[in-house]
Amino acid sequence: MKNIFIRKSRNEKKIFGIVSEIFQNAIPSFSENDVYFLACKGQEAIGFAHLVILEDRVLFQGLGVKEEYRRKGIGGRLVDTAVNFAERLGRDVYLKVKPSNVGALELYAKKGFTIKKLRNSYILQRNLCT
Question: What is the pLDDT, as a whole number, of residue 2?
């Protein structure tokens, strides 16, 4: 999609706005280990990726795109941005997905994530080498 740019952000007001619009019950965290990337159309935030940097890995904590912008490649671009960031840190990326979230599972599989553990949620991992 044209005119969409993705950038790292520490703008708590903008991050809180987009996260709570997409996930009404979510409360964003803003520690030194939290990293957010925003997808923006002009000044409007239309999507986000939330990472948590740990000593030995990066947790992909959240991903969301406003409904009217879904299925336009924005989620994939946010995933690519997050993975590239983790690769620059030299860390694998882990995330958790509910088995019922088929769209997310398809997106992550397309981006090289593999299922590592099954319980109430799938734990997916993306190794640096893939």
Answer: 74
